[in-house]
Amino acid sequence: MFPHCCHPPKKFQPVTHVIFDLDGTIIDTETINQAAFRAIGEEYGKKFTVEMKNNIAGCVQKETARRLVEYMDLPITPEECLETFLSFTRDKLPDCDYMPGAEKFIRHLSENGVPIAIATSSAEEEVSLKTSKKMDLFGLFNHIVCGSSDPEVKRGKPEPDIYLICASRFADKPKPCKCLVFEDAYNGVLAGLAAGMQTIMIPDVNVPHEMWSKATLRFDIQQI
After folding, report:
1. Residues carrying CATH 1.10.150.240, the chain
2. pLDDT tens digit string along 125-136?
3. Helix (H) / strand (E) containing 64
4. Which end of the chain lies in a sparser environment, N or C, as judged by fewer CB atoms within 10 Å?
5. What does the alpha-carbon distance between residue 21 and residue 32 come to, in Å, rounded to a whole number?
6. Could you read off the pLDDT of 34-57 as tens digits, one per residue?
7. pLDDT tens string 166-198
């Protein structure tokens, strides 16, 4: 029995490396982010909706800000939107919690010699804040690719660039088909699949079927 199996089990292939998204997959920054998005909208009498949330999740910071301004028809530039967002979230990021089961699973992979890395749309400065009080865990990762600041990442999720670059930075440079991706966002799932990697989605309850059905497999929080 395979709960929420999006493709027949016969299509599952052996993997050697695991790549994680960060926000909403390893750590619960989404609660902070959504509060910031709502506050920005409310300042201009606009409402931030679940549909907007699903459509911007996983995007690099500049694209997130651009979409927010467009979706909510805000009278500010994307650059101003991004700066407001960052000023709202920065001091809260070091204290964000782990997602259920994430820490235990990551330690299990590390203890069993599975190479692990992170491919996040966040910028390096914000990743440093998010991981500053959790280096005992984040020190287990081979490397972290930060899509909003890494010069090699030319296109953000849903394009495959960040996952292909992340795979190439493992010492043994595994083929994409040997990498397993964990994601919480639709754009991230599309990026992992476009990179030729099996991709597991761990969506929140508000993600509609069409946004997770393309994933190789879906996990729910209560299954982890």
Report:
1. 30-94
2. 999 999 999 999
3. helix 61-72
4. N
5. 17
6. 899 999 999 999 999 988 988 888
7. 999 999 999 999 999 999 988 999 999 999 999
Topology at the third CATH level for domain 9-28+97-223: Rossmann fold (3.40.50)
Whole-model pTM: value is: 0.85
Catalytic annotation present for 23: yes
Q: 120 by DSSP, 3-state: which?
A: strand
CA-closest candidate to residue 176, choices 150, 202, 194, 203: 194
Helix (H, G, I), strand (E, B) or coil at 133: coil
The architecture that CATH gives domain 30-94 is Orthogonal Bundle (1.10)
How many alpha carbons lie under 13 Å from residue 81 in its C-beta half-sphere? Answer: 25
Look at residue 72 and tell me whether its pLDDT is greater than 50. yes
Return the pLDDT at 1: 31
Q: Distance between CA 94 and CA 131 in Å, rounded?
A: 7
Q: Determine whether 21 is an active site residue.
A: yes
Q: Identify the active-site residue in 23, 150, 161, 184.
A: 23
| Phi-psi category of residue 214: left, alpha or beta, with phi > 0 → left and psi -120 to 50 → alpha | alpha
DSSP β-bridge partners for residue 20: 118, 182
pLDDT at 57: 81
Q: Which residue, chain included where needed, has tokens 């997959």? A: 25
Structure tokens at 113: 């010699």
